[in-house]
Specification:
The complex is a heterodimer. Chain A is mainly α. Chain A contains 8 helices and no strands. Chain A has one domain. In chain A, helix 7 packs antiparallel against helix 8. In chain B, helix 1 packs antiparallel against helix 2, helix 3 packs across helix 4 and helix 8 crosses helix 10. By secondary structure, chain B is an all-alpha fold. Chain B contains 10 helices and no strands. Classes of the chains: A mainly alpha, B mainly alpha. At the A-B interface, helix 1 of A face helix 3, helix 4 and helix 5 of B.
Chain lengths: ~220, ~210
């Protein structure tokens, strides 16, 4: 085994100048810009849902979409802040108010969704389409945040991965409600929650491995 | 040339002896902050001084959680490696101390978890395991052998018992033993010889029983 003075010598010998990280808020803004780009591209290729104009005047829809977007933004900021070693873990509470509002509007949508399912039924095609959109948004965003956090998150992988997963899910949910009509509410929400739970679950179980994959320590 | 860093480090010994612990910490922190900032820019000398400076502090932090010296050193090295790997995340506008302590704390907790996991599935060797196969090295057995010997000596005749005690257990010379007991040297020699024979008989009997 190497001695501590020996280790210090080898670390000093390999000490190249490093570029300091930009402030966490700036890094979060960069990631959100990337997310906006992905959502924008999908809007062009997939098309906005036909009834968006009508829905945008409904208070519950606007509240829901604003809350999920805000959750995404705040969760992204919180993710980049807590990934640094010396920041308070109270930052994890940053997206909590927006998350509470978002979850409460989902609950409402769920109930109305149930009623509509009874009347119209659910088309499977819509659900698969939804899932594809969700995957198309989530995959690049998850990968981007994983790469951006590869070094800083090694200390608190679980905490950071859960918060990052929340940011990705919220952004994806916001995009979905722009692209898909709520006639398939229950399916959209099931996918939404499924993916969110999957991301958070994977983050909890594989948090450390995920980060050690992109940044071998 | 006298840099601000050298100024700061020069004041440390004085602060240590004169002022309280808090003041020392503040000076350390300012010192380490400047050294780290220079290390980020590629100043190897500053980096070496920083790592050598924080090592005793890290060791004291690790020593609060680990007893084994090897574990403490492992934890210190883990912390140093992490500091090296993520040194670009340090923001010079913020104090160095909390940054370092946060990293140290995480690595120490990781070390404790690793230790807990390995203890759950491994059995450590202790004295019992080591001496099990070789009875003559077994300390508890040796202690009971001593008791058996003392009991056997108690059963000797008074003359033989005193001679064995003085010449074999207390390791007195024949002259000293003769002076202490009032017996002649020749009588002592005979008594010891007979005493040893009797002990052999006693042990032979006990061996035969068991």
């Amino acid at each position: 085994m190497i001695t501590t003075p020996g280790l210090i010598e080898s670390l000093v010998a390999g000490a190249q100048p490093v570029r300091r990280l930009r402030p966490p808020v700036a890094r979060a803004a960069l990631w959100l810009l990337f997310a906006a780009g992905i959502v924008g591209l999908l809007a062009v290729s997939h098309g906005i849902r036909p009834d968006l104009g009508v829905r945008l005047v409904q208070a519950s829809f606007v509240t829901g979409i604003a809350a999920s977007a805000l959750t995404g933004i705040l969760a992204a900021v919180a993710t980049f802040v807590v990934s640094l070693p010396d920041r308070s873990r109270l930052w994890l509470l940053l997206p909590a108010p927006a998350l509470a509002v978002w979850v409460s509007t989902i609950g409402y949508g769920c109930l109305t969704g149930w009623v509509k399912v009874g009347a119209d039924g659910i088309r499977l095609g819509e659900a698969i389409d939804c899932f594809a959109t969700l995957a198309l948004i989530s995959a690049p965003l998850s990968l981007a945040i994983l790469v951006m956090l590869r070094y800083t998150a090694l200390l608190e992988p679980t905490r950071v991965a859960v918060m990052g997963g929340l940011a990705v899910s919220a952004i994806a949910a916001t995009a979905l409600s722009l692209f898909h009509s709520l006639d398939a509410t229950i399916m959209v929400l099931m996918w939404n929650f499924g993916i969110a739970a999957l991301l958070v679950g994977l983050a909890t179980v594989f948090g450390k491995k995920m980060f050690s994959w992109v940044a071998p320590s | 040339m006298t840099s601000p860093v050298e100024d700061a480090s020069a004041t440390v010994p004085g602060m240590r002896s004169g002022a309280g612990e808090t003041a020392t910490k503040v000076v350390h922190d300012v010192d380490w902050t400047l050294l780290m900032t220079r290390a980020q820019d590629g100043d190897k000398d500053a980096y070496r001084r920083l790592l050598e400076g924080v090592t005793p502090y890290l060791r004291s932090l690790a020593a609060r959680r680990f007893q084994n010296r090897g574990d403490i050193e492992d934890a210190v090295q883990e912390i140093l490696l992490t500091v090296h790997a993520i040194r670009h995340t340090y923001d010079p506008a913020r104090p160095f101390g909390p940054w370092l302590v946060a990293i140290a704390h995480r690595r120490i907790v990781d070390g404790l978890r690793r230790q807990g996991r390995s203890r759950a599935r491994e059995v450590e060797w202790d004295e019992e395991h080591e001496t099990f196969a070789a009875p003559e090295t077994n300390l508890t057995e040796a202690a009971s052998d001593g008791r058996v010997l003392r009991e056997a000596i108690e059963r000797l005749s008074p003359g033989q018992r005193d001679a064995i005690r003085m010449l074999k257990l207390q390791e007195l010379s024949l002259k000293e033993a003769a002076a202490a007991s009032g017996m002649s040297v020749a009588a002592l020699k005979v008594a010891v010889h007979r005493g040893l024979k009797s002990l052999q008989k006693i042990f032979a009997k006990q061996g035969g029983k068991t």
